[in-house]
Queue: 2 jobs
Job 1
Amino acid sequence: GAGVSQSPRYKVAKRGQDVALRCDPISGHVSLFWYQQALGQGPEFLTYFQNEAQLDKSGLPSDRFFAERPEGSVSTLKIQRTQQEDSAVYLCASSPPDSPNTEAFFGQGTRLTVV
Amino acid sequence: DQQVKQNSPSLSVQEGRISILNCDYTNSMFDYFLWYKKYPAEGPTFLISISSIKDKNEDGRFTVFLNKSAKHLSLHIVPSQPGDSAVYFCAASDLNRDDKIIFGKGTRLHILP
């Protein structure tokens, strides 16, 4: 596809369940970002990859959150033992290798609801 | 600690008039600034950007102004159109550090008929 693709679009999880959110970036994009957007808030940075290297994970709220991008393309954000406060839209973005390359392209997001 | 601040949660503007969305930042290392637009149930889409070496960038109906000494930027939309109704996010990046983009909380713009 032409854009960033995220799946699933919607996910309902029972508290304590593990979830995995997938992001397919635009082909050829080197940088990949995960953001968390709570209701009425702006996107909050979670983590950042350049190819397969996770260069910054300072925004991950707890050790229950884990992200990977093993082959430098598709990325997965995993949340273990989900809590109600994890309910949010999780946005993935990618940007091309040009510099400056901060015009990141966003996917539609995965709306996670923890019940 | 909010590094990018959008103090107006919402703004209503008459169709055809100018919309001005404001943004303040605290990190003096930011050197690249962006505006994103977001419709419901969609991801943010890039609108316009400005480098810290400039104080103005214009693209059609959209102009971004940067005042580095005040750590303030604004987005002007003129004339405002109904399709401009959306949430607008101000964002900033320190390109000397990495590509990470820091977002404000957004301003919801309503264009009134």
Job 2
Amino acid sequence: GAGVSQSPRYKVAKRGQDVALRCDPISGHVSLFWYQQALGQGPEFLTYFQNEAQLDKSGLPSDRFFAERPEGSVSTLKIQRTQQEDSAVYLCASSWALLGGYEQYFGPGTRLTVT
Amino acid sequence: KNEVEQSPQNLTAQEGEFITINCSYSVGISALHWLQQHPGGGIVSLFMLSSGKKKHGRLIATINIQEKHSSLHITASHPRDSAVYICAVIREYGNKLVFGAGTILRVKS
């Protein structure tokens, strides 16, 4: 398909485990965003890539969170030593534009449950 | 105080009713988005506005930049419109979305 895809769709991790969440943006989209959505709340910004460069990581909640986009396309969000408060839906979005004010296309999200 | 506030938080309507969801924001913006999220599903962009009004089918979105306020209207509501509707803004000179908490809409038949 031509949309943003994310995998896995669902992930259950035991507290303390490391997890890796993958995002495949729309081909050619230069901007890629990761958002975290806790249950019953609106999404919150985590980090932003422009091609392979991570230009903003101000939303990452702790140094256990790490994101990369080494070739400017697929991105991986890694969470080390997961905690229960990390349980959320992790959304990826991409955009063709370098600047704001343009539409972002969202993936289906990865629902992470930490037990 | 959140930068983006939505009201109401929850809304139940009868099929056919006219629905309004409101969004107020406190920062300068380059654009405002209205998004739809179905349970278990991803987010779909409905509108992106920087001024005026847009219409798509039964959905209408308006924005008043001076008052920092936007509304999403649904005419002739239908049970399939049941979803969470989220307002999000892009700050001036920024590119990340800042989201409201969402409005949970349930349309009963």
